[in-house]
Amino acid sequence: MSRSERDLVTALRSELAAIDPARPCDRRSEAAGLASATPAREGPVARLAIRLGRGRGRGRGPGPGAAGDATGDPSSDGPPAAFDWPAAAEHCRMAYLRGLFLARGSLSLASGRTHLEFVVGPEDAPALADRLGDVGLPASWRLRRGRGVVTWKSSDTVGLFLRRIGAGGALLELEARQVSRALRGDLNRVLNAESANLQRAVGAAGRHIAAIGELDGDGRLAEQPYVVRLVAEARQETPEATLAELAERLGLHRSAVQRALERVERLALHPDERAGRRTTSAARRSRRTERTPSRRALA
User: I want to staple 170 with a disulfide (CB 3.0 to 4.6 A). Which of 12, 45, 124, 186 is the partner?
Assistant: First the structure.
């Protein structure tokens, strides 16, 4: 990732770590997610773990909507804290996932591609993927070097997840960059296509002008049908015009203009085509004469 992309990811994680849950059950749920990893090295996340640990004494009882209790210090190393996912309320689940993302999640924005993953124990990966599917955020999982990796590669899914766990300003900046990048990509594709079309049109016009000049020089152009001579004249007068523009100017179909110019190019490339056609026509007339008896012979 570039420096600006890394700074944006850092700002997003700091924004999530600055959220101070109001409900005691949400505090316990987020502490459970944080407790699933070693002590955080990031300052905002480490301060969040301390803040949640100090608030553990407030509202110790389960209370309505509580998702279970996190055991142990959220900043300590050791096994993941208990979290009763099936019985948890929606807001508790989001708090837990926010803590889990801060503890075990990573976000990459390299080369315009959004990639978010959780690195957990090999036995926890399928369970986490099922939990994410329960809240409408289906994810894939795999094993990598003995660790379970739960992954999202869809920018829409990643944006929805970050929004649901509380991301605000940093997420808006991320989405604005994605929209800007998509617009630049579309614009570049359009410009490249237009440039390629222009180059092809210029090349074709050059071939047409050269072929018309050759046919005009040896007198073969004057022998062509009226439409071919009309199109050739219009092409010489406006070499920059497209086939559609020539057709509109002459009151012809585009296909008729295209066939006329193809005929001109073909004749320029094969100078003997006219003679060959005349020889063929003469041979055909000779064969018809041989097959049909003359009136004198019949008499």
Answer: 12
Angle, alpha carbons 191-235-277 (nearest 5°): 120
Q: 119 has which bridge partners?
A: 149
- Per residue in 185-220, pLDDT tens? 788 888 888 888 888 888 888 999 999 999 988 889
At residue 83's C-alpha, the angle toward residues 158 and 64, to 5°, is: 100
The pTM assigned to this predicted structure is 0.57
Transcribe 170-224 into DSSP letters.
HHHHHHHHHHHHHHHHHHHHHHHHHHHHHHHHHHHHHHHHHHHHHHHHTT-GGGS
Copy the structure tokens of residue 54. Answer: 């100090």
Residues 118-137: what's their mean pLDDT? Answer: 93
Q: Looking at the domain that runs over 3-167, which CATH code has it been given?
A: 3.10.28.10
Strands (E), the chain: 105-108, 115-120, 140-144, 147-152
> By the 8 A CB rule, do 124 and 80 touch?
yes
Residue 178's CB: how many other CB atoms inside 10 A? Answer: 17
**Confidence band of 255 (pLDDT split at 50, 70, 90):** very high
Can you give the residue ranges of every domain in the chain? Answer: 3-167, 182-273
d(CA 30, CA 231): 77
Cα first-last separation, the chain: 99
Tokens representing residue 248 in the block: 């509109």
Q: What is the DSSP letter of 38?
A: S
From 93, 105, 167, 100, select the one nearest 133 (Cα to Cα): 93
